[in-house]
Amino acid sequence: MTDQMKPAQPPQAAAPATNTMALVSLIAGIVGLNLVPRLPSGAAVITGPMVRKQIAGMERSDGLAKAGMILGWSGTLFGLCVSLGIVIALMSAIRDPGMTPADFYQDRLARRAEFAAGGQPRGCRPARSGARLRKQMEERTP
Q1: Domain annotation covers residue 48
Q2: pLDDT tens across 34-66, in order?
Q3: Element (H, E) at 66
Q4: Is residue 25 part of a domain?
Q5: What are the backbone dihedrals phi and psi of residue 61, each rounded to the nearest 5 degrees, phi first?
Q6: Do the Cβ atoms of 110 and 103 come closer than 8 Å?
Q7: Neighbouring residues of 44: CB distance < 8 A, sequence distance ≥ 6
Q8: 118 pLDDT higher than 80
Q9: In this structure, which of 45, 68, 91, 137 has its CB flanked by the most CB atoms within 10 Å?
């Protein structure tokens, strides 16, 4: 008889459903931060705010969208820093293949000191005034 007299439990509220786009934003942010910085990070940056406007109130999905958006921006920033480093390294290698970064820095300091002392910087040709240029052109014409 005691088994039949159990009090009924109140119905539990269903957990809010997770928005699929919020999950896509989070996954794209994680993939963009770890594997390929460009494309997935851009997707996370775009879908994050879209989802946050769309759901407006579902706490769980809002957190996922915000996390995806933050990871997307982080991946984008990381990708830009890596790209900038690659460009600087390539420019340095093209300029003088045997020059180390420390040598490059010392060379730059020497050039600045030479320029500050009033000398013509190495690697630069003197500026031509208009009169001087006309005179040179007249000399060349027959």
Answers
A1: yes
A2: 777 678 888 888 888 888 888 876 667 788 888
A3: helix 59-95
A4: yes
A5: -70, -35
A6: no
A7: 25, 26, 28, 29, 32, 68, 69, 71, 72, 75
A8: no
A9: 68
Two structure tokens written together for 71:
């990871």
* CA distance from start to end of the chain: 126
Q: 97 Cβ partners below 8 Å, 6+ apart? A: none
pLDDT in tens, 59-109: 677 888 888 889 888 888 888 888 898 888 888 777 666 767 787 778 888
The one-character DSSP state at 2 is T
Domain carrying residue 89: 20-116
Six-digit token string for 122: 């190495």
> How many domains does the chain fold into?
1
3-state secondary structure of 103: helix
Evaluate whether residue 63 is within a structural domain.
yes
